[in-house]
Amino acid sequence: MIAQGSPKMKRKLLAPIFLGLIISTTSCGIIPNQQKENNLRRMSYSDFIEAVQDKEISRVLISPDNATAQVVENDGSRSEVNLAPDKDLLKILTENNVDIAVTPTKLANPWQQAISSLIFPAFLLLLFSAPPILIILIIVLLRKK
Fold this sequence. Notes:
Largest sheet: 5 strands, mixed
Helix content: 40-55%
Number of helices: 4
Number of strands: 5
Strand content: 15-25%
CATH architecture of the largest domain: 2-Layer Sandwich
Order of helices and strands: HEHEEEHEH
Strand order of the largest sheet: 1-4-3-2-5
Distance between the termini: 13 Å
CATH class of the largest domain: Alpha Beta
CATH topology of the largest domain: Signal recognition particle alu RNA binding heterodimer, srp9/1
């Protein structure tokens, strides 16, 4: 019955599905973000260690949540480096008189984590269960007439 419906009816039924797909792809991060706000230059880990040993680095701000560090060079320029699991890193930094700071980790409330982890699956369940329910309701209503 629905396959024989008018094109307008088909568009009205498919519009929520396409809208849901667009919303889910943007909220999942499938569409890449623009650029980072701070626009930092990327530095390789080996270049970072070499710059520290050459006394070109004055300060390092370590972010343990994403295993990166913001590096401030002696001339004031800033870079970002992905940190490698190096047990000697703190020793190398302190031996070369680099000012070290660590950003606090962002531990979310356990209830917030539980609720936020359920939002997307609930949205998907609603997204994919609503169209079949609507189709069933339309079929029932059309049969009554």
